[in-house]
Amino acid sequence: MEYSKNKSNVRFWVISVAVVIVLLGGLFFWFMGKDTWVTGANIYSGESSSNPVTKEGVTIINSQGEIVSTQGIESSIKVNSIPRIEQETKAREMVIKFNDLDTEIKVNKEALQLDALKEVNLKMEDFDGSMGLNADTISLTGKVSRLEVNGVVLSSDNMQITFKNLNYDYFSTTGIELEQVALFGSKGEVQLSGDKLVYNIGSSDKLTFNQVFGDFTAEKVAGNSFVANFASEGISTSGSLNAVFK
Fold first, then answer.
1. Is the pTM higher than 0.70?
2. What is the tens place of the pLDDT at every residue in 158-183?
3. What range defines the domain where residue 11 resides?
4. Is 131 exposed, middle or buried (0-12, 13-18, 19+ CB in 10 A)?
5. Within this chain, do residues 102 and 210 fall inside the same structural domain, yes or no?
6. Quick one: 9 and 80 in the same domain?
7. Please, is 61 exposed, middle or buried when counting C-beta atoms within 10 Å of its C-beta (0-12, 13-18, 19+)?
8. Alpha helices, DSSP H, located in the chain
């Protein structure tokens, strides 16, 4: 009789502890939002990395207008340094503002004549090629469907554009596809899934976005700034990032 009573008490406490664990886990994921989860130092879209679910409101479309993915983690970024990006990419539009007239820009293997200009606003559409970007310069080699210089359309046919280490003041792009974007040595803020999770980044922290699609602006006026809105399929972190759940 006493044994049965003790066994019932044990069973009651086991069930109670299990219920508490489930409730705490549910509260955690409620704070995180239904669309994002965290494991270790990685953040993925969906319920798990091996079994993703559709993320409402995020539809990734490439530069050809094709749907790449309906999954992704929305990220809003504002930091004080420009990341180094060197990779193959596609972009719906690129805009570069600069006054570096010494760097040669070739269009279909012929030098673009910019000597008469003081400042240049170069706009390209449907870029497909390689890009090298850092805090000082930008390099591009690839094809574009349209090219404008200070509002004047040079050609609307597919053409090859090439330049290396152009000293820029401002660079923006929309609809860009990147394998990876890594923020390191930056200070600022990153918001994930709207503003449900906010990271305050320090100079010793690293935040890496994988399989990225979105828009960003790199500007060197009154100090460097990098502002972006991405959808990415995974994010990894290192360092002592200060995360705030909302």
1. yes
2. 899 999 999 999 999 999 999 999 98
3. 2-32
4. buried
5. yes
6. no
7. middle
8. 2-32
